[in-house]
Amino acid sequence: MMMEVLQRLLFPPPPSIFVNCMSFISFGSLANAGFSELRGKHMQYSKFTNSDPKKPNPKFSSKIGMSILYAPSFVFGAASFFIFPDHGLRFLLLRLALTIHFLKRVLEVLFVHKFGDSGVAIDSAIPITLSYFLSTATMIYAQHLSAQLPEPPVDLKYVGISLFLLGIAGNFYHHYILSTLRKEGEKEYKIPKGGFFDFVVCPHYLFEVLGFVGVSCIAQTLYTLAFTAGTTLYLIGRSYATKKWYLSKFDDFPKDAKVFLPFIF
Description:
The chain is an all-alpha fold. It has one domain. It has helices at 2-9, 17-39, 62-83, 89-111, 122-146, 157-179, 203-219, 222-249, and strands at residues 59-60, 120-121. The protein has a two-stranded antiparallel ribbon. The relative contact order is 0.17.
């Protein structure tokens, strides 16, 4: 039953051992990172940069470190318009969505976010940057290969556009809320309020996942679906860890706050 549904929603796997292996590798590595967050082994950025005091932790400043995470993926997304031939509307939309997503993240780092003193650990910056870059390149390459394959019976690209735009707008809005928590010169963390922060701990993660669901609907390839599923598991784990961190730091943080989905989980 599941295979029949996937056959109606996805392109056939492309004739590429690399892309097909990357589908399993991306999902597995991201899911494992999410379970590591649940176990208390965190990627060392933002509030979790110094979560392991026994481990030497050379780091970038937050602005430089976060820029490094996103800039290579943006550059590849922009370069893909020159590297790959045009394969029609779906391929154009995928490249636009990925390029816009990472351009937005770079611009937020430069002009929206207000950072504390936490920074980004170098040993976390490298794998995160590689993950974003390889996933972006593989999504685009998989779409390039799929251009010669039969289109899925169910066309989801217009649904994907709507979900992507909703996701990127919601993500930006909640990043903006976070940026307003600190006044000029302040470094400490505060409990965020407003928007979907009244319903879940990390609504910016929820909307990021929604944006990547939109990208998956635009692409309709196995690799993009696998990456989105793995990203969802990672951000759920990160959200759980964030709730636990808030509860440890603030006595008035609501204990019944949902981790990821409003009113549900």
